Amino acid sequence: MNPSISIVRIGPYHLTPSQIDRIATVLHDFIPTRKPFLLAGYTLKDLARDTQLPLHHISAFINQYHGMHFNEFINRYRVAYFHEKIVNEEWKQKKLGAIAKESGFKNRNTFTIAFKKVHGQNPSAYIKTIKGKVPRESC
Fold it and tell me: Which terminus of the chain is more exposed, N or C, with fewer CB under 10 A?
């Protein structure tokens, strides 16, 4: 082993700093650009396939460096996408269930739970504060 190369232990996996940098670069380039989070049901296995990174390395990286599991990680991208889109007048008129699905969530309830985890309030209350109007609640 080369003494100038340090090894970082992430869970049961030992990754070099260059491996960690590569994972970070690939994930943080791929996800915002390709927007795989818009696919409801997108999994860690899908991300590993699409990025050609080892599944267990991605999982360990997300757990260690983002302090969360994959579903929470991907849901944060979905919530961020919602933030980008909610300024559009068209989105203001949509039902909350439609907004959730277009943001990549399987349903409105999953969206509400993820949104509350990020913002501490439900999406309807948030929309009301920024837009002055809540989308229709029915799906």
Answer: N
